[in-house]
Amino acid sequence: MSRDSNTRRRTPPGIFLIKSVRGKDWTLKSYRYIILLLTFIAYASYHASRKPSSIVKSVFYPESLKNSKVNPWPVGNVFIKEEEFVSFDRNRVESQGWYPFNQSDGTSKLGEIDVAFLACYSSGMYVAGHLGDTLDLRLFLTTGMIGSGIFVGLFGMGYFWNIHVFWFYLSMQMVAGLFQATGWPSVVAVVGNWFGKRKRGLIMGIWNAHTSVGNISGSLLAAAVLDYGWGWSFIVPGALIASAGVLVYLFLPAYPEDIGFCGVTDSSPNLESLSQAEEDRTQKGYVVKVEKSSGIKEGSGSRTGIGLFEACFIPGVIPFALCLFFSKLVAYTFLYWLPFYLSQTEIGGEYMSVKSAGNLSTLFDVGGIAGGILAGYISDKLNARATTAATFMLAAIPSMLLYRTYGSISRTINILLMVVAGLFVNGPYALITTAVSADLGTHSSLRGDSRALATVTAIIDGTGSVGAALGPLITGFLSSKGWDVVFIMLMVGALIASLLSSHLVIAEFTERSHKSVPSSHGQQTDEATGLQPLLRNQR
């Protein structure tokens, strides 16, 4: 009776209500679909709330020489209001910018805004990861999402309150960064709690499309309301992530134990809808793990995680973290500066508007979706996460060079090269932050029933976020010297990322050249993580 009472207490209220109305529970497979959908929506809203600052950069710091009489491509007049219908205030802001960002040091101040957000995001990540392994993940994630929505919205209120103090915008971004740090460790931990390592690269590659979907939706939302004042470009995405936070609170079971799966047995009705093969795997693998953890720590309320420094000694954590440092430096520079670059660059003999640049930049994320899925699929097939990530980063170098060199010839060529660059830039970034982090967070070197999913994810992505903070900051200064210098910096970053993973790549190739043909299915499953070679070398 006591255990049933505790389960009901931990069950999200929305699921508890639906179960009461339906009179029966969902299957394990159904719950996994729910987990993927809710965490997808949650982190897509996180990324959507980060995009407005990149969209409004050219409004804050305009260049009148870039005005064009031709209807901007590719949206034409669909989203662009004619000149005579735009309000006086809107024209004034577009032509004069927004103090203090419209001064000679405007791009530097915009870079400082970005780095303030990302510095707080990366530092908060380390704390958030440990908290995520010890607190109720559902409540922790909900708090982060609602807090992010509030402070993103407050940044936009600066437009309506006519605030021109730099420290106001800086402080709003810093607090928003701290709340945003709760997102990634939490969603990766939730997905890792519900899914095993089998085909994890492909599953998480598809799931990681939320990053690009969030970037695309955030860009389109911010651009769509830009004509009504740049403040709305922040308020609307802020309201979106806060609403998604309420959805998470109502329906997200962070752990299988939260909805009563800690006692699953062979005769459990929750497995009836699964195929026999999947049922056998679930009963022999997944259920055993749950039963082991249910003796002391049941569900969200009583879990303990390992220490931050202890997690650093898990084999592979530090090398992948350093690799992600430079990988994210490149990816986030595109995230924050690509719309500005497009509005400042002549493409096919024309300059495009701020809104059109924001819409066009979403195609980079379309390539990123394909890159994440492709990298996950290849890493599963080759059983080699590090080799896949390093190969993608090396391929990103010529793709960025081609984009900078030939992207201005025509709009069609710009699109094609942008998609290719997005594929190779975002592919390794997606792979390391998802499948690799989840592999290491459930590593066999963890003692007893310690949990490290959120902690390991925080270490890897937190270190990467330091690079993500430096990239946009450096770009703010280098862009005044010319965009060629910026692209050189990005290509050097991609090269360093691939070199930092060389030790892991060598370990994978060495293992593949010496290993014999696996004699059992279980051995193949162990090697599917792509991390086995590294472990054997370090034992």
UniProtKB/TrEMBL annotation:
Superkingdom, natural source: Eukaryota
Membrane topology qualifier: Multi-pass membrane protein
SUPFAM superfamilies: MFS general substrate transporter
Protein localization: Membrane
Chief site of localization: membrane
One Pfam short name: MFS_1
Region (Disordered): 515-539
GO CC, alphabetical: membrane
Sequence intervals crossing the membrane: 30-48, 139-161, 167-195, 207-226, 232-252, 312-338, 358-379, 386-403, 415-440, 452-474, 486-506
PROSITE patterns, sorted: MFS
GO BP terms: phosphate ion homeostasis
Residue ranges constituting the Major facilitator superfamily (MFS) profile domain according to the UniProt record: 37-509
Compositionally biased intervals (Polar residues): 516-527
Protein name (record): Glycerol-3-phosphate transporter 4
Native organism: Gossypium hirsutum
